Amino acid sequence: MAQAAKLAREYPHAAIVLEHGGLPADETSEGWAAWREGMGLMAAESNVFAKISGLGMFNHTCTAQSVAPVLREIVAMFGAERCMFGSNFPVDKLWVSYADMIAAYRHAATELSETERRAVMHDTAWRVYGFETLETKHA
Amino acid sequence: MPELPIIDAHHHIWRQADLPWLMGAMQPRIFGPYEPLRRDYPIA
Question: What are the sequence ranges of the domains in chain A?
């Protein structure tokens, strides 16, 4: 993460999207501490965005209870305007249906403001991937 | 609460034949057994 943050610093005009919430694979207290430290370094670079996706790849679960703490921490570090939801399907269908995943994220996101929810579930990706530009081009 | 619009910013579209890891014998992966993934996932 430190090397990735350095790279982001060296290329400030490149948007860098960090996958899978920074892979919080180690659920020990030391593991979470290392994840927080690394995510903090990435969040300090304003050109880094965080995908909140694939969080169940290690514990093979996706519920509002499993998503909410990670969602909360990542949004607190990056700000919702730099966070975006992703399903990681079809991989994550190994343990959750698409409908249940969306329900889990919707429920977990109820603790955010409406603006934050919209950012995470839609607006950030719209902006970062330039969908508006695409729409204009094809209009 | 009104339904929020959603962009799914991370998903995979693939042809199984393009992905060696989906073609060979099953290997241990962090996400466990993955037999259901061993097929095409086209855009539509």
Answer: 2-138
Looking at the structure of chain B, the number of domains it has is: 1
Tell me the average pLDDT across A114-118: 97
Provide the pLDDT for residue B1: 53
Whether residue B12 and residue A88 make contact (CB cut-off 8 A), yes or no, is yes
Count other C-beta atoms under 10 Å from residue B3's C-beta.
8
- Look up the domain containing B12 and give its range: 1-44
Nearest Cα to B4, choosing from A99, A32, A120, A131?
A120
Which of A95, A120, A122, A127 to probe the B interface (max B CBs under 10 A)? A122
Q: What are the tens digits of pLDDT across the range A20-42?
A: 999 988 989 999 999 999 999 99
CATH class of A2-138: alpha beta
